[in-house]
């Protein structure tokens, strides 16, 4: 009886560990660590100020990150909304900002994102242009994920890649990543 219990317990543990491994981000290298990303404009899980949305100045929030591992050669940043168009029935992830090749010495981006660090390249958002496009949800309260990736490489010029193209290019090069989530719901319906 004890032998059967131990065998069942071992099988369950193996299944749980296998599921955990299978759910890991396949683009991330084994043993990747966690980074911290913050903003002085909003706390994780709280509302993004309207200045950073289509109802305000539509400028990027200030962002800072830490805990990049040794061996980091560049960073990538992706800001997206998985709740488009309606959080009650999401159909797509809307991409708001794509940056890559931020120098390894960079630990922050100023509000507005106009003076990007030397060497930084931009990708296309879902408005089919480069640069930041702030929250502008058509209905309901949406979540906006600000994701920082520490990479073990500097990528070639990808000629304004989409989020998917950038993710494909840095697959297997992620040393660490972090995430900051803000929310927004329009104050005035359009």
Structure in words:
Helix content is 15%, strand content 33%. The protein has 190 residues and is α+β, with helices and mostly antiparallel strands. The chain has one domain: PEBP-like (Phosphatidylethanolamine-binding Protein), CATH 3.90.280.10. The strands form two sheets. Strands 1-9-8-4-5-7 form a six-stranded mixed beta sheet, with no helix packed on it. The chain has a three-stranded antiparallel beta sheet with strand order 2-3-6, with no helix packed on it. Strand 4 (74-84) and strand 5 (92-103) form a beta hairpin. The protein is globular, with a radius of gyration of 19 Å.
CATH class: Alpha Beta
The percent of residues in helical segments reads 10-25%
Cα distance spanning the termini: 67 Å
Low-pLDDT sequence parts: 1-24
Order of helices and strands: HEEEEEEEEHE
What would you give as the CATH superfamily?
PEBP-like
Number of strands: 9
Please state the average pLDDT score.
87
Number of helices: 2
Strand content: 25-35%
Structural class: alpha+beta
Oligomer: single chain
Give the strand order, joined by hyphens, for the main sheet: 1-9-8-4-5-7
What keyword list fits this structure?
single chain; 190 residues; alpha+beta; Phosphatidylethanolamine-binding Protein; 6-stranded mixed beta sheet; 3-stranded antiparallel beta sheet; 9 strands; 15% helix; disordered N terminus
């Amino acid at each position: 009886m004890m032998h059967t219990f131990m065998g069942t317990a071992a099988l369950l543990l193996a299944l749980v560990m296998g599921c955990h491994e299978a759910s890991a981000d396949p683009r991330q290298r084994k043993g990747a660590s966690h980074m911290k990303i913050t903003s002085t404009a909003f706390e994780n899980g709280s509302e993004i100020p309207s200045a950073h949305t289509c109802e305000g100045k539509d400028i990027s929030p200030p962002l800072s990150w830490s805990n990049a591992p040794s061996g980091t050669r560049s960073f990538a940043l992706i800001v997206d909304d998985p709740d488009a168009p309606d959080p009650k029935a999401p159909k797509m992830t809307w991409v708001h900002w794509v940056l890559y090749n931020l120098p390894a010495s960079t630990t922050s981006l100023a509000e507005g994102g106009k003076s990007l660090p030397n060497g930084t390249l931009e990708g296309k958002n879902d408005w089919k242009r480069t640069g930041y496009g702030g929250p502008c949800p058509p209905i309901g309260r949406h979540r906006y994920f600000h994701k920082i990736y520490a990479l073990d490489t500097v990528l070639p010029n990808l000629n304004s890649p989409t989020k998917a193209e950038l993710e494909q290019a840095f697959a297997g090069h992620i040393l660490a990543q972090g995430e900051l989530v803000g929310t927004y719901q329009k104050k005035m319906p359009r």
